[in-house]
Amino acid sequence: MYIKRINKAVITVTCLLISICPIINQAQEHPSLILTKAGVEKIRAELGSIPLFDASLKKIKEEVDAEMALGIDTPIPKDYSGGYTHARHKRNMIVMQQAGVLYQILDDEKYAKYVKDMLMQYEGMYKTLPLHPKTRSYARGKLFWQCLNDSNWLVYVSQAYDCIFNYLSKAERKKLEQNLFRPFADHISVDSPQFYQRVHNHSTWGNAAVGMIGLVMNDKELIDRALYGIKGVNLDKNAKDDDGGFLNKEGKAGFLANIEEPFSPDGYYNEGPYYQRYAMYPFLIFAEGLHNVKPELKIFEYKDGVLLKSINALLNLSDADGDFFPLNDGQKGMSYYNDALVTAVDISYYFGNQDPGLLNIAAKQNKVLLDDSGLAVALGIKNGKAKPFDKKSINLSDGPDGKQGGVGILRSDDLELVFKYSAQGSSHGHYDKLSYSFYENGNEVLQDYGLARFVNIEQKGGGNYLKENKTWAKQTIAHNTLVQNGKSHYQGKYDIGSKHHPDLYVFDDSNVNIQIVSAKENNAYPGTEMHRTMAIIKEEGFEKPFLLDIFKVKSDSTNQYDLPFYFMGQVLKTNFEYEVPGTLEPLGIDNGYQHLWSEGCGSTTAENTKLSWLEKGRFYTLTSATSKDDELRFVRIGANDPEFNLRREAGFLIRRKDAKNTLFVSVIEAHGSYSPVTESAVNSNSNVALLKVVLDTIDYTAISITTIKGDTKLFIIANTNASKEAKHTLNINEKNYTWMGCSYYN
């Protein structure tokens, strides 16, 4: 009897809470997430006088009107990424969000009715919807094959619900919240803690989804769950996701933890720019909602304003064309023209310090958000406030405290060096410490392969990651860095890689004529220390700045070292002879080598090895200081790839056998041009006559570079003391050199 009374009391209290819920909701102003009541009034007052905003509004109105004319389709889920049901539900979420915004701005009820009708269809479907039939994901959704996409849906749809909230009756809101929104939020959180309760771009989407619908519903429990994670949940600390990353090794979770942990103080996101771009939308759109509804959190000031800092970092992680550097898992061609970056640029401008450089990028994007921030950007452009976004050399630290390596970018003229010495980067990280890629005016000269995936192309593995992402793209040999004994860094194991990172030795961009980045890695191979120094040097007599690469290796054992260069273009000339096999064979059997065809093999015949190639009308030359026993190989990606999942691109590899301590030194020149119209070649030959190691000790390495005109320059790096205040004196060939700081060049 006592238990029954308690249950009846609980039921009574529950009913009371439900009955007063609409009253609580009614007290909160709507819209309040990305749009505000005051903002809507201002937008309406400015319509017709702000070209970029008006054009953005016109385009979205045309798209939504076209979708509305087709009718509403909410099919039963069955497909992976790229399939019809997946694409339809993804399109529905975007159109609902857009239609909600159109209702607010244009005050046309047809858009509110459209959103309402579609939501009611989803409500009717969702309350009996089972888990998605595709079972590949570690956390299955209901509308989509993974909870990640379900979270995408709720992030967008919560905005639509906010926009039509006052259009709906109390009964309609109650029906949607009880049968759709609350169960939806519960499924991606308390029902899927392995997805939600972690620090990862997946959980960021989940946190934002739960939090945003919580803000609209004025549901404190959901808001707290979004900010701090699920209370009382303890996951297996050794459990992993589909990509091999730990689900919750450190026990941290929630939106605030997802700001604290992945971002460095400089705003670098540990998974790399491709996933930072993907995560920035939920980070910023939820932050905007929190700012509007819960300003006391001061979310844009959290962790010293790192969310706004991160946008500047992300924009600097793009090439001259705006394409993001494909560090870790990254699809080439993803750029700041993506809608997520429209959101990032607009919100950064509005909530930040109104950087006029952001207006320049917004103008290139040629669209703005249809909200308060988009209005501010459009007005800024209209009023002529835009200035070029000046991308300079920059060093971005990694890790929550900025002490877990980083990424150094050196820019000189049209050249960009991207030097990766970062931490593992969660489950999307690759095993390529001290690797680099090199660009000229947005074109790849030496490439980072990026990911092995055809995103949202169903014919290729359901649009998901391909097995070659693990067997090739993540492996060390797929990158421009050193491989020891044919094994990947950290044995290619996340458990090991996540514990270590390289350390910055020096980053110095203070002299525009010689910029340097240098880092050390002592854990990739036990007993082996790797130290790579890279410099972009402007020198008279060279058409363009040249890249100097010094890779110093110290080991306790004798090893085989491979140093690949994945050049983009057509081979023109070499200074060594090589044999091309009649039958192609893979270079190895595992660790990525099984995917490399050996297309040619030769050996050194001179003090230097030279390779020249042509790409997109530009000439490039690699000059390496090599030993007589070095093996030289041309390789091509694509072996053991019967489904043609990998791009058939070329590489050049220097192999040094039976070496303990060794030094690899190279210079890469960009020079000349070729016009297929005039059929003329200009400055097609290298300017380097001799590259020589004149000294290599524990403390110092000295390299001389002699041009074809006989001019010789000397570069010295102090290997053990990087202090700017340190004074060095060194005798080389009976000549004394004295300098301050870690490097000398003259």
TrEMBL record:
Keyword flag Lyase: yes
Localization per Swiss-Prot or TrEMBL: Periplasm
Keywords: Lyase, Periplasm, Signal
Superkingdom of the source species: Bacteria
Signal peptide: 1-27
Heparinase II/III-like C-terminal domain sequence ranges: 398-649
Protein name: Alginate lyase family protein
Source organism of this protein record: Maribacter aquimaris
Lineage: Bacteria, Pseudomonadati, Bacteroidota, Flavobacteriia, Flavobacteriales
